[in-house]
Design a protein that fits this description.
The strands form 4 sheets. A 5-stranded mixed β-sheet has the order 4-1-3-2-5, with helices on one face. Helix content is about 30%, strand content about 20%. With about 350 residues, the chain is α/β, with parallel strands linked by helices.
């Protein structure tokens, strides 16, 4: 018997087709845990083996500082999932179960070893990550953010907050988490005595961000326990006022889950209300942008006429042109797309 391959070897398009046709009920969830992993490569191998055997799909990052996972688990075996986690020293962790889930969030299993489970741009030992901000429940979050002196900060990237955010939040115009840390500290440098509340998708970024601010001298630092996902769940369960507007961006095939009915964003092509994130149908571009249904039809799922025309070409001609052509997403930048509004001079 040959050696088992602990990574996916099947074509992505075939895997996507299998997922689309599958009738298996799945539960999408995320979790994280900061703890010391002495040999990440060995841990990664064992995690892949266990998750693959359990039919789990998703994306997991492993490092010496812990685990960060976004996955989908077969509903039929979900009751056994706790045992799998325990065997990986992941017992008693919070599972952030998706709010708006169709079971089609991931089509393959990826487990990767990284230097850090959340890239922060900091040197090891630079910040004491045990000195974190105080966790707030959904009810406590609503109460403290009702106070005029409270500063609320969104610790996510611009393309995430564009489609959904909390009322009154500061929305840093950043592309990455590592960029956001010094930007937020600089923005708040004259407000170091005020209560600062941070939030992100599931809480993992705020664990680092709150510790970063405390190390910079901020004293009243808080973080939303479980992030937006847990907040939405508690709001519904406890009949609390929902202070989140719009969609929660997620890093899987869904690209978003609706938390409130408001649509606070606009189509990047026509400017009409829309919060539907898509990747350009031209794989040579693949830029992330917001596209309404009408523009999706007009541009065939592409971000521009150029990409629309490109995907209509024979495959061999596309392969040749990809060597020289430059598209909106050639130099990768999520959401940094100029709208195609007639008469603005931005048409491509």
């Amino acid at each position: 018997m040959g050696k088992r391959k602990l990574y996916n070897i099947i074509n992505s398009e075939e895997l996507k087709s299998r997922l689309a046709q599958s009738t298996m009920d799945r539960i999408t969830l995320s979790f994280y845990k900061y703890f010391h992993i002495p040999v990440p490569d060995e841990y990664r191998t064992e995690m892949y083996r266990l998750f693959d055997d359990a039919g789990i799909l998703g994306r997991i990052y492993v490092s010496r500082e812990g685990v960060n996972a976004q996955i989908s688990v077969p509903k039929a075996t979900f009751s056994e999932f706790a045992d799998t986690l325990s065997s990986l020293s992941l017992e008693d962790i919070r599972l952030n179960i998706a709010i708006d889930d169709d079971g089609k969030s991931f089509y393959k299993l990826i487990v990767r070893v990284r230097d850090k489970i959340v890239a922060d741009g900091l040197d090891d030992g630079e910040i004491d990550f045990n000195n974190r901000g105080e966790h707030l429940s959904a009810e406590e979050f609503n109460q403290i953010t009702d106070e005029p002196s409270t500063i609320l900060v969104d610790m996510r990237n611009h393309y995430e907050s564009e489609v959904g955010h909390f009322e009154g939040a500061i929305l840093p115009d950043v592309d990455t988490f590592r960029e956001s840390l010094p930007v937020v500290a600089d923005m708040l440098q004259d407000k170091m005595d005020a209560p600062v509340v941070m939030y992100c998708t599931g809480g993992i970024r705020c664990e680092k961000a709150s510790a970063y601010l405390k190390a910079k001298g901020f004293e009243k630092v808080y973080q939303l326990d479980g992030g937006i996902i847990e907040y939405a769940r508690r709001v519904e369960a406890e009949n609390l006022r929902n202070k989140f507007l719009g969609k929660n961006f997620v890093f899987d095939e869904r690209l978003g889950e609706r938390i409130s009915p408001e649509v606070i964003a606009n189509c990047h092509q026509c400017g009409n209300p829309s919060d539907n994130h898509v990747n350009c149908a031209n794989d040579a571009c693949h830029i992330l942008f917001i596209q309404c249904e009408s523009c999706g039809t007009e541009y065939h799922g592409c971000c521009s006429p150029k990409c629309r025309e490109f995907i209509a070409l024979p495959i061999e001609q596309q392969k040749e042109l990809r060597k020289t052509e430059v598209f909106n997403g050639t130099k990768f930048g999520k959401g940094r797309y100029k709208a195609l509004r007639p008469g603005t001079g931005l048409e491509l």
